[in-house]
Amino acid sequence: MTITVVAICTAAAVPFRGDEQSAIAKQPVSGKVAITSLGLAGDEQADLVHHGGPDMALHHYPRDHHEYWRGELGNHRLLAEPGAFGSNLSTLGLTEDQVLLGDRFRFGTALLEACQPRQPCWKIEHRFGEKAMVKRIMATGRCGWFYRVIKEGEAEAGDELVKVSEGLPEWSMARLFGGIWGTSTPVDTDLLHEISRLPLLAGKLRNKLIAKLDV
Asked: Which part of the chain is the MOSC domain (predicted)?
């Protein structure tokens, strides 16, 4: 599988709402960008409790979903931007049902590993000016996913994302998202236990699931 990355996006943390800071307004950058274990050079996270860290080094959101959101939101100005949902990588032709937990991709000279789906936060609603946006994302599963960086390197927009090894069979980002945060069916605790034992799952997410199951 080979997919062209149409944009690499970064942002600095800036005032967002009152005293809140955010770096969700990602904008495309040109030229080669260093990819480190903590993410892209020049990219920031304002809330380091809930964002950032080795298992959230890069957020990938499919540009494929923008057309769906146009149907929901109309011709919203943000949907013309590749980083509309706060993502670092924007592509066409790769979605949550095609990416397995542990899939490894070469991107430029870096090596990335898909390690968890993304849970949307309230800042997306504020950014889009749309109430219940988080609920709508959760209901559709159009969430995107995170990579950890196995090998640091550099890449630029236009480079290819090349899958070099398969992750865990049957454990797509779509299935993981539905099992952990899906809202259409009652919580399947057996499934959550199974997910919590997956060896390649992001550590912080695993701990959250274990704590939730122990309540």
From this structure: 27-164
